[in-house]
Amino acid sequence: MTEAELIKLVIDFAHEQQPAVFALHFPDSRRIQGDPGLPDLLLLGEYRLIWRELKCDGTELRRDQRAWRWRLESAGQDYAEWVPGDWRSGQIQAEIIGLNRPPGQDVTAVADDDADPERMFFRALYGGKRVRG
Q1: What whole-number percentage of the chain has pLDDT above 90?
Q2: Which residues contact 7 (CB under 8 A, 6 or more apart)?
Q3: Which residue in 31, 48, 111, 115 is deepest, having the highest Cβ count within 10 Å?
Q4: Rounded distance between C-alpha atoms, residue 114 and residue 117, angstroms
């Protein structure tokens, strides 16, 4: 799955929600005025806002992307990276649905077919946020 295909799936799914989840895609933050490295997506529901970086080709975060991640997390923002496997597992859909749910109301993953049950356990435990050492 390409990044463009994943972005389309995410934005279409966000707009299908009731009410629609607002989605803003930053195609290449290196080409906008200001500091490069801004995450690919900003998603805003009725109760929460999340920042997501999409990685579809196995690449690592660039230095400027790591700086944005650090700054957003330091400011208490919800930041994570999504990969195509997160769509297939239902993790992305569950997080988007959760944007319109009041705090404390859990959302279970839409699909639970991840090949790595340990990974799914920890993602469910930590609400989709990546745990970094």
Answers
A1: 62
A2: 25, 40, 41, 54
A3: 48
A4: 6
**Per-residue pLDDT for 106 more than 60?**
yes
The mean predicted confidence, pLDDT, of the chain is 84
Q: Are the CB atoms for 101 and 47 separated by under 8 Å?
A: yes
pTM for this prediction: 0.76
Rounded Cα gap, residues 78 and 48, in angstroms: 9
d(CA 104, CA 121): 18
* Encoded tokens for 6: 């994943």
Find the helix packing angle between 3-16 and 91-98, rounded to 10°. 40
The 3 state secondary structure assigned to the chain is: CCHHHHHHHHHHHHHHCCCCCEEEECCCHHHCCCCCCCCCEEEECCCCEEEEEECCCCCCCCHHHHHHHHHHHHCCCEEEEECHHHHHHCHHHHHHHHCCCCCCCCCCCCCCCCCCHHHHHHHHHCCCCCCCC
Model confidence over 48-81: pLDDT tens digits? 999 999 998 888 999 999 999 999 999 999 999 9
Residue matched to tokens 């970086």: 53
Supply the pLDDT for residue 111: 46
